[in-house]
Predict the 3D structure of the following.
Amino acid sequence: MKKPELLVTPTSVAHMEQLAQAGANAVMIGEQRYGLRLAGEFSRKDIIDAMDVARKYGVRVYVAMNALFHNDKVDELGDYVRFLSEQQVDAIVFGDPAVLMTVREVAPHMKLHWNTETTATNWYACNYWGRKGAKRAVLARELNMEEIIDIKNHAEVEIEVQVHGMTCMFQSKRSLIGNYFEYQGKFMEVQQVKYAKGLFLYDKERDNKYPIFEDENGTHIMSPNDICIIDELEDMIDAGIDSFKIDGVLHEPEYITEVTKLYRRAIDLCAENREQYEEEKNELFARIEAIQPTHRPLDTGFFFKETVY
Amino acid sequence: MSISQIINGKRVIVKKPELLAPAGNLEKLKVAVHYGADAVFIGGQEYGLRSNADNFTLEEMAEGVQFAKQYGAKIYVTTNIYAHNENIPGLEEYLRGLESVGVHGIIVADPLIIETARRVAPKLEVHLSTQQSLTNWKAVQFWKEEGLERVVLARETSAEEIREIKEKVDIEIETFIHGAMCIAYSGRCVLSNHMTARDSNRGGCCQSCRWDYDLYKLEGDQAVALFDENDDPFAMSPKDLNLIQSIPKMIELGIDSLKIEGRMKSIHYVATVVSVYRKVIDAYCADPDNFVIRKEWLDELDKCANRDTAPAFFEGVPGYKEQMFGVHSKKTTYDFVGLVLNYDKDKGIVTLQQRNFFKPGDEVEFFGPEIENFTQVIETIWDEEGNELDAARHPLQIVRFKVDREVFPYNMMRKGH
């Protein structure tokens, strides 16, 4: 049976090597100047080094250019795309059509993955971006299992689904943490707190903690739980989903590595030895639960949830 | 095409932007058009982003289109959800329906709807919704090459960025000038999905961004509060957009359509905001070099505001002063109390539909496109049969009383608190 790719997010080149050893088939890397909410910051030098690791282990490298760009960065996109093309990265991940246009101009053979995080919600839109040049669509996290499989059944492009980790709920261009501190009159602390790690918003009514951080792309608010469906992979593997992503943003490298190992085992078993998978899957889930940070509960995201409107 | 020309030694604006107003129902549509909107955007029963609004049936749209036609105004329908698979059946029929009643265009975010409209309802203009968060000229270029007539830019674009987009791409540009707005990049927020299981990108947004939160920092496993006991909580509620001072700049930039937000707002709000911007645009276009913003226009806008306002990204990146902390709305200073149905010039008697309580002795203000605002103290009030009333108590009740100056159907009467 076809095995989906296991795509993970390293925090550094050294970490990428560990992830390759842990069984990752592909990595998504990049820098915040062009990419959104990355687990680590990879300079051009790091990308060159990452390609060495990739060749050594046979791992594919996807580079994030999925920011929403304003005019000021449009002119430099070509240079970055050219660099990525020279390094022979395996694909560029984009959301903004400006990237698509740039790739057509300077590196027409470069593979593209369409990923806006929230707007890949039907099979027609996935195929539309396929006709425009994308080889893959990364589905919105707010879809349920039935919708995902229906999209896959109609898709003319590869389909990537996030199976683990936190997801982005909100991106604003405004400096919302900095603004709050300025409102409180704490002007001196703004720079320090803006880029601090471990910030979260507490929602009393739901007793939820939402991680929040600022970077060059604005303010990002993340989901209160980590998705974990290591014990629910059967339907998507049967449907032939092309890529399973573990997003490690805001997690420690050791945690990401361990989760990668466990999903490696889960995918292999589920594809090759279904009986053994059924026997082991609860244990695999328990092993993730055991290393879960105390403030990060696990859930199944929107895979089994009813959303109304 | 140049924006202005010298006519009889005086510069005038020859490229006047469209004033685009919202309407949540047929009555609001008529008011918006009557008060000076060049175009109105409305929502249908499906595929729009305000599932809680009244929204229009096809028959109401047909009537709205016919009404607007008398004024030379256009009707656009918001069909800007990000559709899920289940929304695909029925879409073709829906779009054919819009085309058949004479809707001028649709405002769309999802390529599914763009391409389906092209195929089954080719007479509809297709405008790209702000839900696509268009922030640069190259992305605008992409959508132009896709054949769209117009794009609505992200609320995050500045004047300078719009200038560059206009220079580089020949496509109609629509931008927001007034009303509530997302604090997130539109289309990139799913707070509602997570917090209330309502799909924000299909019209279910419950404005979770406007709730209060507490900001903490994790030190190890300990959560440390980043606020004091008496501090206002963390909030990300933006002040409403208000670009009245920037209208001259927007006209000179050649922006094609200036859009007012608010399909959920009252007819009083729509009438007030539309009439003020109508005056600003007309006054500037007639004599741009001697134009000044009149204080009465600013005061007038304030009469229908229920939140503080600010210029947001058009004039630079907004800081904390463009957000609201600790307060969620401000008290409106005026109530809308009556809609003029008729005026008997010989007797000086108005026939009016009651919209809120008023009584003899109250000082009220009349406004409307045909008149300068004026105040009037109400004397005797009669009902339709001529019986004297101690007050106008009943919603939609038809009443009559003396008004000294001439008023016209659709003029409105408001009362200060």
In short: Residues 253-272 of chain A form the longest helix (20 residues).
